[in-house]
Specification:
The chain crosses the membrane at residues 26-46. Keywords: Membrane, Transmembrane, Transmembrane helix. The protein contains 2 helices and no strands. The chain has 81 residues and is mainly alpha-helical. The two termini are 24 Å apart.
Length: 81
């Protein structure tokens, strides 16, 4: 989905710029506006999803003192995402 939105944004910017150069101010502005809206959507949507990603740091074995406080790297188990 990211690359589809990125491709659409680039196409909208190119079409809008081309139309502005040729003198079609209304359609060129609409194309640039669509490109800006797509850019904002990409930044907001993927920026929000990045913040939601949390690490599940529960060890897969029965450790007495799991070392999961300093980040996603646990000493006890191989699967600490």
């Amino acid at each position: 989905m990211f690359f589809l939105m990125l491709t659409g944004m680039i196409i909208a910017f190119i079409v809008g710029t081309t139309l502005l150069v040729q003198g079609e101010v209304l359609f060129g502005s609409i194309g640039i506006g669509v490109g800006v809206l797509m850019l904002l959507f990409i930044i907001i949507y993927y920026g929000r999803n990045k913040k939601r990603k949390k690490y599940d740091c529960t060890p897969d074995c029965d450790c007495v003192f799991p070392d999961c406080d300093s980040g996603p790297d646990c000493d006890c188990g191989p699967n600490c995402d």
